[in-house]
Design goal:
This protein is an all-beta fold. It has no helices and 27 strands. It starts with a strand and ends with a strand.
């Protein structure tokens, strides 16, 4: 089946759906049996049996599957996105952004918390983080930290592991440097069943704007190989999402439909090959501006796409090659 987990003021609201029968419709929007709850803008993050959700005040609650109450395990900047992944199969790490005051202003830093252990800072001294992503890799996890700046945008990657009762943080590697960040520059992390991992960053290139697919080695290395897939024009925000743990890596991204500055924006679906090259499946039908993407792959290999547009919030199932 499929579980749609949304954030209801810091509490996970779970909608369960049964997968279509074999031989049923291959493409279509899903009608929920009950009306979906009104939810908060910052999505929850899921790792194994746990859902992590941030409330409007920034408190991050860990809720175990089947439990009615959760436990606060961290506090981040309200409204920012969080990420989570399982480590060693039995522990879950949640990654979030914390605002710190410094002499020259404020900076966002990334922290990680596992179980009830004290949080660990994941940002290096002298660098911050404006967006994060996290995915399981082997018995540990791979963390991305995007440090959006006006002049340049470094992307950091580091391996995480659970060892001797604490979070072990691998060496920091600046795997990619993009152009100046827009206010809402984001990133996504896609992984395949073969263990390949790609950071996806919609950002300005030397000529134009596009999606940088940065292959992340194991362990991550400085200046990893990057393959570009260009957009007709730039946009901000540029929502993007990718699947984890299945091949091929499926991608959903919002991009301009045309090159003109006032072009409508649509949701494009596609896949990455093992080298990071993007192949588009095509655009799906949307109404107005699309936001808040999420994707997953089910046991039949079909792609589920969750998004919001001007007409509402939608969940679609697509059978893709």
């Amino acid at each position: 089946g499929l579980e749609l987990i949304t954030n209801k003021s810091g509490t996970p609201a779970i909608t369960r759906m049964t997968l279509p029968a074999l031989g049923g419709p291959r493409i279509g929007k899903v009608v929920l049996e009950t009306e979906a709850a009104r939810v908060s803008s910052s999505p929850c993050a899921v790792a194994g049996p746990y859902a992590f959700c941030m409330d409007p005040q920034g408190a991050i609650t860990r809720t175990a599957r089947g439990d009615a109450t959760g436990k606060v395990v961290g506090r981040g900047r309200p409204g920012t996105r969080i990420a989570a992944a399982s480590v060693t199969g039995t522990h879950a790490v949640v990654m979030y952004l914390v605002e710190r005051r410094k002499d020259d202003g404020t900076v966002l830093e990334a922290y990680g918390s596992v179980d009830d252990a004290p949080p660990v800072r994941l940002s290096e001294d002298g660098s911050g983080a404006t967006a994060v992503a996290l995915a399981p890799r082997g018995s540990g996890a791979l963390a991305l930290l995007l440090d959006g700046r006006s002049a340049m945008t470094p992307l950091h990657a580091r391996a995480l592991a659970w060892k001797d009762g604490q979070l072990e943080v691998g060496a920091d590697a600046v795997v990619f440097i993009g152009g100046g960040a827009e206010p809402h520059t984001s990133c996504a992390l896609g992984t395949s069943s073969s263990g390949a991992a790609f950071a996806l960053v919609p950002t300005a290139a030397e000529t134009g704007f596009g999606m940088a697919a940065v292959r992340i080695g194991d362990p991550p290395a400085i200046d990893e190989k990057t393959v570009w897939s260009m957009y007709p024009n730039g946009l901000d925000p540029a929502p993007i999402a990718a699947t984890t743990g299945a091949s091929p890596i499926r991608v959903a991204r919002v991009r301009p439909v045309e090159a003109r500055p006032d072009s409508p924006r649509g949701v494009e679906l596609g896949k990455l090959d093992e080298n990071g090259a993007f192949t588009a499946y095509g655009m799906i039908s949307t109404t107005g501006r699309a936001t808040d993407l999420a994707v997953a792959t089910d046991s039949a290999g079909a792609m589920w796409v969750y998004y919001t547009d001007s007409a509402g919030t939608w969940l679609e199932r697509r059978a893709c090659p």
